[in-house]
């Protein structure tokens, strides 16, 4: 048994299979994967890692298992899944995940291979656990998969409160202890017990407020877009493979970007926080559906055209189109008057939060500081944006203020 | 200048008129007025007082004035109003406020008399401040009244974060420092500066989540209803006047209830937290409009009838009808793209929160523990409740669980 | 089982005998006993009560029992003792304890009678627990008494961290979770396990820093001395008995002081925080041994003489002589290299802290604000103080600053 | 003006020269220098960086300047020094500082060159500040140098509270706001104002408790010693220069260690936290003076001899001799009764803390896990240790427990 001091949950007691998993290179690597990727360029204290988060998720899983009276091999399997749930992350966590998925077909929770072929497999075998079932839990499969990856999972409980602690933004400060205590299974579904409509709402609200303030802060989005573009260029190099990049840590990726000719300028910009600025920042209803659903190749063409027309390097124009909002509908469930009800049917907040998401959606076009004006105009035209609504950098009066919207009070 | 250590804002520097006001009996009395009245029977750490809250409001007002560059006599007047804004509170804060209003015509922010006739007047005079204008600010009058009493006032910012600190319920943990920094005046209106839609939402959400969990927790409502009934009985005594009760502190009121024959049993119940239980807990749409808008005299008749039919003392049945929900509409304003917009028009959350309020509304009927069944049935019939929907204590199966709804995880 | 939300330990789960004890009037009364007495006049947020502290002590005791693998009836007895350990407190906790002891022969931990003759006895009987053994644990008797009342008891762990939370003074913020985890029994002695020299030191240091800053802050001492004097006068009244005062709560005592002619002025001063000031503030080596060991009657004579010579009312001069420092020697023990060692022999800090205590010792003479000068001189002479060293109010130049020593940054 | 959100001080307002310095590569590089080096291998949340610490020091310096009423160019110079005070740090902060000093003659506060020859110089010139005077402040020179680098500097105030926040160890939680408020200059000396003996003690005590628990935790020492040895080997490579290593960031150094044949095994061990174990852990009085004062070359000979005799690689034995304890005597000063006194003369704690330091001093010999026994014996003999006292790994019974001494509750 090992006891580890954590700045969020205080003492975390690590036992059984989890204690052995802790010492595998796959878990130790998470010490060098930033939990929030480039968000640290916005909130300088946000240097926390996937490693401490994994410990936190393991801790909350253990507490939940206690309250749910789940014991034995099933519990060990869930604790193992909690500890391992993020080992599939690429450097900078979600920042380059989509890009790597296009090359490898794998997301961060596709960990079967990682669990089967590494030191992790040996540890699981020592403890008599089936690697496939552990991987299944991480992918959210089965009744108990909901605890590790679902609407009420301990993953989200840990990251909200941990991100709040490390950024200093209080919105994520949920009552995680209450959440863990109130989890219960009804007919195979993980739900919150009677009297927890507000508890469930608070979880959704916390995420809804953290989203624009932290996770999709415009500076985080710009730096992430630049990192993604740089990594794309890195993958153009003959000797670097997406599978290798996926298993790098942050140190590897940053160093690789520094050493590669095609990406050195991006590395310099990252290192000195010399970021692109917004040329366009357009609301959902001002962006044609065809643009919102364009595939990466189409967007690369747009970028190339705009760059060319503005006499810029192709790397100097980035079009950043977020996924459609509200795609992931909330399926949280609560017990009300003895019935399992969807939170959505019980709380007007849930629908409102979904609408908010659409209101916060923004298409961004980013470029070097002295070209925002001409790139803004060229991009708006090429993308067929409604010029009046879309904010194009030097066209709209009062733009400086407006562009700071969602700024979270931070750089 | 005095520096005071506060558990919420750390060091509070009290200067000028505020330092002198601090030493008046009217302000010192607030040390013995519980900020949340009987909520301490739900959350045992919630023993904070109107005194420390007043210091906090003064502190935030000073910070806001700094950011707004308001100086001189106007600033002194606002700081005086901040320090004095709660001196009109009766014992147990809002708990018996409506009752006393029926007798005295005064709410807690009707403080003209208190400011004019006491040591407070002398202090204001010493500093050349007009008592009426200070009282006006406390009542929310004029441009600067918004800072002390309005949708974006520093009063709410302090109480949310202070109540969270002392109850342990994290929902009130707003980013008050950001709120204070982002206040600005546009055309005489106090609004939040560009980029603060989430900041404004977070304030509303915090209150919306604290409401059912803390402020209107059913145990807080029951104990408050009992205290109100007891105080009503106290006022029946020949020698006790509502004006006197209004100026009591918590110590006086509790002791008076103990010593008065008609209220001693209430005092015993309060002292040993031996509270009535819910006999009825009915949702908004199950309660006839005529009941929802009944005046106190009508409700007293209902109580008497039900008590009689159940062979109980008249004090042993309490019908508790909250005000209509959503009456106080949100008028928070934010600056968006250079325009002042009502938060309501900008944020789908605001409407949703109003709807939530109606969903959380409950009529309660409370009585002694062994009579909940018969009182529930009698009251439901007398009030014309939709029996199926309304929860009547021993009728509905699974009632224990249901009755714990909104329980905030606490007794 | 009841779950209670606490602002210090978050959710506290109360079970078994403790849940039933919670509902007794003896425990509920603690809601109205201020944990730190008049310290709230220095730190306005310090309104916490013996009730929430008792819950905290119960909680830490439960955690310690878990780590020590103590179960069954022994554990229930300890949990009962933890919940009940403070029911013997008089109003304002320690403030009038000595005074009442002179009249009743009882300290706050003399609870045999209280446990035997009240509702508490019935609850203990229901759970098959022997009242005498529970009272013994509270008095610190036997092996397990050390957990409830000893050098490493959970009482101290809770109060340090709780007082820090509520005053805002961080010095008490110990690592209580580590302390509880590292407790172990060696040969019947409760000690800290290997590797905890610093853990033990931190507990002593926390108390050593909280002492002058919070517990014996000069304003706390003055207001406590005034309360003690007022209560002494109250006991002079024909119809008021020390046994009755001992079982009052804060509300009772304050109201009694207000209603009694001989104490009304003290009550007014307490209510409006209109406190006496220091006339003398003398260091240990400047005070004759005979004064340091004088009994209360002798001091009353001094007070009367000084008051008379200064033409003041006898109530207007208070001589405040703290107990000899360092009487309670530290007997904390730690395991080092497999041996149980006294912390004192292991840590040079312990001896230093004892010396510090003597350096911080001060005799105080307090009086009305406009008489400090003449009372200072008269008292210094009457007590035979070394005038040069002793600070007498208007004699010493720069006295304002000096008198603020140990002021904790607060009023 | 920029406002930055910090998890320790909340909103930090960066203005004037500091805002421009923030954007220099020299300051941005600090984002990639771990504040506590390898301590993160003990406390997994301790991923904070020199960048956020520099912001914090700048913030506290600004607050102190306000309280001290220092304005104009002097204030700008101090704020610049606060922001820049750590730009001279090598990767992993202090971990390889001594080693690099042997090669370059520079410590982290030797920043003249860095300030003179880089973008920093341009910014200082733009603001009319003399680089040499800023460098002087960083080195602690002159009256105002005490604020930036001295016994009562804001550097220490920030790091204690920040390290506590990020490790989760509460001992560093000082009352930094009070400290900053109570600073004052008397005759050119920076001292704490009247009434702050405890405030000064608390700063020393915080450091004294953080030292063994965090900064010199044995796992931090082992990993630091391994990193130092690895960096030594790296400097043996023909193409790597100490000046270059000094200007690397953590990413560079870790990657360089991975890519260099002679250090790859160290890198692997660091990456997977596969650390050496203690073979010897000897107290001060058991180590001959000649060993305690041995120079690095002599210790390398010892290591080589022991390794050879145990048939290990020379890299597999590390002898770790800390500096003599108590060398840096405390010169904190406080105002008592209008006189400036050395805290040392006023507080018995100070001397005790110095003695403690010697008691905590340990010589360590580290090696691969399966060789601790034979290396322990060989090293003890070669170093002439008093075998009975010194803990040699497999010789002393009960050694596992003992070796965990000073373990801080963490891995």
From TrEMBL, chains A, B, C, D:
**HD/PDEase domain mapped to chain residues:** 46-169
Annotated GO molecular function terms are: dGTPase activity
Domain of life of the native organism: Archaea
Q: Which GO terms describe its biological process?
A: dGTP catabolic process
> What name does UniProt use for this protein?
HD domain-containing protein
In its UniProt entry, the species of origin is given as Halorarum halophilum
